[in-house]
């Protein structure tokens, strides 16, 4: 990592409504005078990110969609100018398969795209790439390292290292260093992959901007009933929305008065809407769809409690945002969540996928308005003390500077 080169960030897609912490990190890096070039595999649709991030969208170099002729020219250029490196990258693409069907074809597609990214990186004289999530973009970075001799690092977040996926061992092993938002992931990976024992890991909690809207203001809310429940999570199987909906049906049967709003989009949304109808929850549960960061903050102003029901998480930004808004939280005691939520102090934790315990947590809050306020206040100070974006960014810059010293 040269001290004179710009830093490049590489995403699978960017910006995104469901990954506001990524935009937040980039904006704060630039506010602290860090030169950050932006790259992404896919161009998002205009409705898939907050309009306030239009400047980041305009500033990002997108690989796809792309004309085939441009792919061809970029690859031919590398074959001519760096024949040895291209040959090595081609062998790498054909060699790495990790037991996944069609992985070699996927590697070749990534190699062809990597040639276009390589052309742009070379023009900007960038020799280090930082990737968020160990998904597809990390697979491209693996090939870029061979093509250009650059280094790359990865910020891991949760499902990218907890769910089996292709080439995860190689992506992590070839990275110069790895940043994790919780200690759980670091210990998990060291146990799962003993060969990562010499890898440099950094623990860096996520950050939120507590000095500017929409997270700088806190709105008091009238005590229940009804208990106002909010869930902010993408609709996919790992988020386990069915657990929450079934728990709500039992709350209704227990004569607990509540209202619940679900924020998010994803492949299981229609199925969950049908489940809510079958459970006769149409009057209690509202599906709001995807919302901007400001709109999510407004929903947290409405809520008493923010709930997650996931099978797997990292350090969920939703919980940090809820704590910043002085809202009690209820979440499963999995992965990095206990590092964030202090049980009985800033929120309530329950065993993963345990419907009865989730019901008990919600009923406890419905019966104890003072507990809601206490947990909200304690969570607010915890968010201020541990999850401030300015502290996050300063520590991130320090990591990059320390790594440059290894050159």
TrEMBL record:
Gene3D superfamilies to which the protein is assigned, alphabetical: Glycogen Phosphorylase B (3.40.50.2000)
GO molecular function: glycosyltransferase activity
Transmembrane segments: none
Keywords per UniProt: Transferase
Domain Glycosyl transferase family intervals: 227-379
InterPro entries noted in UniProt: Glyco_trans_1, Glycosyltransferase_grp1
DNA damage in keyword set: no
Protein name as annotated: Colanic acid biosynthesis glycosyltransferase WcaL
Organism: Desulfosarcina ovata subsp. sediminis
High-level lineage: Bacteria, Pseudomonadati, Thermodesulfobacteriota, Desulfobacteria, Desulfobacterales
